[in-house]
Amino acid sequence: MGRGTRSQDLTDESRLKFLGHSLLDGAKTMAMDIPELSRRSLVLNALPAIACGLGAMALPSAVHGQKSNPEASASPGTPKIWKAEYWAKRGDLSLYLYRKRMDAPRSKQNKLPVLFLAHGSSVSARPTFDLSVPGHGDYSLMDQFARYGFDVWTMDFEGYGRSSQSKGNSGIAAGVEDLKAASKVVLQETEQERFHLYGESSGALRAGAFAMTQPERVNRLVLVSFTWTGQGSPTLAKRAESVEYFRTHNRRPRSRETIRSIFTRDQPGTSDPAVAEAMADAELQFGETVPTGSYLDMTTKLPLVDPLKITSPVLIARGEYDGIASEDDLLNFFRKLAVQDRQFVVLPGASHSVALGANRAQFWHVMRSFLEMPPRLDAGKG
């Protein structure tokens, strides 16, 4: 177990700097009010409208300083969002982690609930969850949930963004091992055993599979743009046409047009075109290829998540027009979940990229409500 360094938030506009080192204890294991959702919104657990219902060996992270982001503050005089970078190790691989929260974690007294975000197949973590689209509104899921009071983390899976590339294809099983490595860093830095886990698209498969194997680490589980068997999915049917390429190549082309298609392939008009351009600008600095593993797994290995092995409370959120999974496929998964603390939501006017769509505020509302659900009380027991 070993050494790491902690990042400090900068108050000027200086470039990224390495700020110093501190020995880590090697023995330490490691509302927004919105209009009511339309009647198309579906939250199922029996009859009510809303049902109440990350291992692999890793060294502690090396943490690097960063410049502050002037857009992180809502307005002059309000607290800025603190941010830090970390590195987890999985074998010879270095995995990049990023964190945001209000105020630096100075003591045990200012612990916050931890929320970890897992990205999908075509775009790395920060362009997905911390996107800046100047002049077009707030699109950073990390900022939004930091303001809600969460300690928000994300990572680049193997072969994505700032993380190491290997000869592997970064499939779903590898993603689970990445999450195990990252969870050691989260535990080390937050001293919290459990965290909320959010997965989007293939990230939802990684999150669900992690929750199956590490149930003691997951508090509440959010599966967004998820697919179970893939039956009835036009998106996966189209991908299956290239399955031999995915079998014989570890990386696939990923262009600006590919990124644009994330927002247009299901239902044009459900997102601002400026979002796709901002995401492409942020993501293409890492190159024009990404791993094939999740595409191969999603076209040849489904199902990868067993609802009977999920013990965490679950929220499944699907955009009305999402082509990655049919509503019936997801409802069949939902009905088989062994937990009663579960919710199923269809978000109207949304397609695959729920968190970056025009109606993202509805999703923020639903997700926040689920994560802040009061604990169950039984009569006569408290």
Describe the protein's architecture and organization.
- The protein is of the alpha/beta class and 382 residues long.
- It has a single domain (70-371), classed as Rossmann fold.
- The protein has eleven helices and twelve strands.
- The strands form three sheets. Strands 1-2-6-3-7-8-11-12 form an eight-stranded mixed sheet, with helices on both faces.
- The N and C termini lie far apart (41 Å).
Beta content comes to: 15-25%
Tell me the CATH topology. Rossmann fold
CATH class: Alpha Beta
Q: Note poorly predicted spans.
A: 1-74
Strand order of the largest sheet: 1-2-6-3-7-8-11-12
Question: Main traits of this protein?
Answer:
eight-stranded mixed β-sheet, alpha/beta, 11 helices, Rossmann fold, single chain, 382 residues, two-stranded antiparallel ribbon
Q: Would you summarize the structure shown here?
A:
With 382 residues, this protein is of the alpha/beta class. It is 28% helix and 17% strand. The protein has 11 helices and 12 strands.
List the helices and strands and how they pair.
Blueprint: E1 81-90, E2 93-102, E3 114-118, H1 125-129, E4 131-132, E5 138-139, H2 141-147, E6 151-155, H3 172-190, E7 195-200, H4 202-213, E8 218-224, H5 234-240, H6 243-248, E9 251-253, H7 256-264, H8 273-283, E10 289-291, H9 293-300, E11 314-319, H10 327-336, E12 342-347, H11 360-371
Parallel strand pairs: 3-6, 3-7, 7-8, 8-11, 11-12
Antiparallel strand pairs: 1-2, 2-6, 4-5, 9-10
